[in-house]
Amino acid sequence: MLRTTTEILKPIRDKVEAGERLTTEDGLLLESPEVPLPELGELANLVRERKNGNAAYYNINTHLNPTNICVYRCTFCAFRSDLREAKGYWMNDEQVLARGQEAVDNGCTEMHIVGGLHHQAKYEWYRQVVSVLHDAYPTLHLKAWTPVEIDWFCRLTKKDIRWVLEDMRDAGLGSLPGGGAEIFHPEVRNQICEHKADSRRWFETHRTAHELGLKSNCTMLYGHIEQAYHRIDHLVRLRELQDQTGGFQTFIPLAFHPENTKLGDERNIKKPSSLMDLRVMAVSRLMLDNIPHIKAYWIMLGVGTAQVALAYGADDIDGTVRHELIYHDAGATTPEIMSVAEIEQLIREAGREPVERDTLYHRVERSAAGWQAKEAIVAAV
User: Fold this and answer.
1) Entry pTM
2) How is 33-95 classified by DSSP, letter by letter?
3) CA–CA separation, 196 vs 155, rounded Å?
4) Residue 92, Cα to own-chain centre: how many angstroms?
5) For site-directed labelling of 87, which of 13, 224, 289, 341 has its Cα 20 to 30 A away?
6) What is the b/e burial string over 70-103, where b = at least 16 CB atoms within 10 angstroms of the residue's CB?
């Protein structure tokens, strides 16, 4: 006799209500279509509100991709370019500083910096991207360089991860983004990005950053060739490092956009459905019990799905996001920027309280004189 859905979920619901950790087997069950999405969302929302109440966080931020020329040819990427392609570019100091000025003029508190691994660029150029911005705009938090880029810098300098991170921190690096994680399991990673930094290097970079006092985010790219087991394995690995370091601030599930990618073309992969987006969001919130925040990145999810995600485990909507290129090159049809008024409206429409934060999760207070970071936002354990 088949069990009802309520019976299937009852042991997990009991664990969640008691604040107990879910196992890999629990996560696989939650990934099953036998578990109705609304019931899964209800459980994720319980954890979300336990940790962050009714708040939904956002920031005023901008993106900087200093070059799209890249030595790697990841099959899921539509952003990269070869040196001689018409779309290839490589910014100089003047262009980088102009972006910094634009960010400050528009009230940004954060610049998110990632890009290609240009085979002709020296390490000093990457460092200078950070240093010229920090020197000119010291109040702008620079969240820069994924472990893939840090690994490349190690190759360029013949130095270890700690040396590179310390040197970048001296230049003005404030924290690390979560990109480059993709899927950790080698069954998948070896097919979609076999030549770039592996999962061991990804974890070593974040572990070292945390030891140095640098906070970071973490991500997962889903909806391509991976299976449920690979996603749960990915989440468990993140949870294990967070147990050891406590340095992750936010987890961002990233939906694969197949347009203009080799992986999408060869495998005929379609973009994940909104239902899959919400299931991954909810499962992530339930599995990652020790990571304070879960982000619904509206650029990738779409505004409507991001709104609904605020009831499926997410407590952060990202920000205004100027100059996002990576996912728009892969077919994202979302706006390239949203105003604060638009962000706050979508949050209120979802029944949440909008709260502006800075990169390190302090409440932001604004006045005619500018902005100030106030008290730290502390999620409940």
Assistant:
1) 0.92
2) TTS-HHHHHHHHHHHHHHHHTTEEEEE-EEEE--B-B-S---TT-SS-B-TTSTT--B--HHH
3) 12
4) 26
5) 224
6) beeebbbbbbbbeeeeeebebbeeeebbebbeeb
